[in-house]
Amino acid sequence: MLTRTVGFCLSAKKWRKMNLSAFAELCRNHGIDVVQIDLSRPLPAQGPFDIIIHKLSDLMVEAQYNSQSQQLLASFQEYTAAHPYTVLLDPLPAMRKLLDRFVSYRIVGRLQTAIPGDQVCCPPYVEINTSDLEEIQEAISRHNLSFPFICKTQVAHGSSSHEMALIFNEEGLKDAHAPCILQSFINHNARLYKVFVVGSSHFTVDRPSLKNFPLGPSDSKTIFFNSHDVSKPESSSHLTELDKEMDWPGPPSEDVISTLVTDLQAELGMSLFGVDIIINNETGRPTVIDINIFPGYEGVPEFFSALLHHIQSILKDPPPQGAEREETQDLDHTHAPTHGPCCPVSSHVKPPSNISVTSTL
């Protein structure tokens, strides 16, 4: 009997946090072996793999300045190049786009004009590549941004990417350290909607978020915060406490979410990602504030079943002629169509259908 193998290339911390040992047991009950990949060991000895599911975003960031990370990433890319029929979830070129907030916001900006009916938008923003305050002020004026601003790092992943600042006036612009994004703050009644995508399914959960602040410049000092801490499911930060009782904005409509997810998958060719959405409390318009690579799927009890379904749907596709393998074949033999850099993503990733949404309110 042909054994199908899925490799997970994740940090030990993420493996434990997502309880993937339980998912591995679920897969075994369906005839699929799960291997926890160790990048410090030769990959051929751990495979072969029909599918590799990974979150190499942190490694990709570290590879920009760390030689050991560069070597680990190079070895991984060499392996996928030598095994072009291994499905890679998700493709590294797409992940590189989302590692850069400058690029990801441009993508959302393009989708904003492509989706009919002004259904979604992103907040006005400006890319800052200078520490010169006059240049920053000129760029803010040119892009018609208004205080307060959220300041975010250009790098969208890694430990520092969650460190943000809320800037209320020109004096506070000294706290914007380039390269960064300055994004107009949108009041949204302290609710964030996280859309978690798993192949052809997506799920929406609500989280705490920043409370409302008066629009326009004020004398308030810059507020520094960690977005991960503020938007934890159990967060009780003073930054999320509204000054008065207000109705929570309802989640974006299913039509809006479905269209957005479909367009993002077509743009990125990715299967496992998240979208952070707020609802403008003045206009009621859904506003995309971030796109995340392989999020934690907290609050999505259906994650295991959705991921297993996605894996099974990929494994249903037979390998190209001549690419079949048996358990006794050499470990370097190739198999199963790829989503990786050696094969066009568009030939394998299809727009989602039969979208399901789980709303936890």
TrEMBL record:
Its EC number is 2.7.1.134. Residues 323-335 have a biased composition (Basic and acidic residues). It catalyses: 1D-myo-inositol 3,4,5,6-tetrakisphosphate + ATP = 1D-myo-inositol 1,3,4,5,6-pentakisphosphate + ADP + H(+). Pfam families: Ins134_P3_kin (PF05770), Ins134_P3_kin_N (PF17927). Residues 118-312 form the Inositol 1,3,4-trisphosphate 5/6-kinase ATP-grasp domain. The keyword Cell inner membrane does not apply. Mg(2+) 1 binds at D276, D290. SUPFAM superfamilies: Glutathione synthetase ATP-binding domain-like (SSF56059). Mg(2+) 2 binds at D290, N292. This is Inositol-tetrakisphosphate 1-kinase. It comes from Erpetoichthys calabaricus (Rope fish). The gene is LOC114656176.
